[in-house]
Amino acid sequence: MKKIGFLSFGHWSDSPHSQTRSAADTLLQSIDLAVAAEQLGADGAYFRVHHFARQLASPFPLLAAIGARTSRIEIGTGVIDMRYENPMYMVEDSGAADLIAGGRLQLGISRGSPEQVVDGWRHFGYQPAEGQTEADMARMHTELYLKVLEGGGFAQPSPRPMFPNPPGLLRVEPHSPGLRERIWWGAASNATAVWAAKQGMHLMSSTLKYDEGGAPFHVQQAEQIREFRKAWTEAGWQREPRVSVSRSIFAITTELDDMYFGGDGESRDSVGFIDGPNQAIFGRSYAAEPDVLVRQLAEDEAIAEADTLLLTVPNQLGVEYNAHVLENILVHVAPALGWR
């Protein structure tokens, strides 16, 4: 059995070929797609966060709105760029959204990806301390966020408060019990996957990672997952770790599916450079008739290792078509692979 959800990058463009022509279109359709996914029996609605781009950015209003409109589906991010985040304010925002959703948030966070602007986090008021990198800064923000999220008191109360205080040191409010155990780290390397395990964060692995050995993407990703789980056990965590992988998978069941994705059937892994000198490997897309997809996906070692599969969706094609994409996988592919 696998949890199956969708991952939306939330693109919009003022183009006659796009059904998301504005930010409002994307936000409102994201809510509608999450509702539709829950009705179809999917397990998760996840959203990418990019700053300075015509894509989804500030996630918590969206997550809270989805939480208020749904009752079962997991709601998450994949991922929030921690270089941009005020950890204290993020504890407030995520705690409030999780309470609205009844404890269903699954937050993916990370160091972040290549940006639309130069050092965009500086415009948000952050910069690495002397001798540190932006990655160091992201991890410092993360460690503080995780610590405060635990809910312990640390702030000295005022002797003359506006309202009565409970006894002892005060914590950031609202506090959502259990959210600390539902934080994921988006890892691009084996080393950062191991670091995430030591921090007690679940692993979120995307459709790319640093090329560490030259093996096919799914083989390298499976090895990353195994190293993560080993480090989790060695760290002594008593709860079960979770692992998600993302894939572009399209079951071709209609002429429209074939028109949109029929040409992706021969997709292969590719390599390139996305951030600095390190070579990255990008996983293939899958697009074929359901019986062919079943055979292909059965050979993907990383999907086999993961407990959660996030399907990247072409959100600009609209809610109805994306619900069809999800339903195709849930009905025609997942049962044959034992995922349902």
From TrEMBL:
It comes from the Bacteria. This is Flavin-dependent oxidoreductase, luciferase family (Includes alkanesulfonate monooxygenase SsuD and methylene tetrahydromethanopterin reductase). The lineage of its organism: Bacteria, Bacillati, Actinomycetota, Actinomycetes, Pseudonocardiales. GO terms for molecular function: monooxygenase activity; oxidoreductase activity, acting on paired donors, with incorporation or reduction of molecular oxygen. InterPro entries: Bact_Lucif_Oxidored, Luciferase-like_dom, Luciferase-like_sf. Pfam families: Bac_luciferase. It comes from Lentzea fradiae. Keywords: Monooxygenase, Oxidoreductase. GO terms for cellular component: cytosol. Residues 9-250 form the Luciferase-like domain.
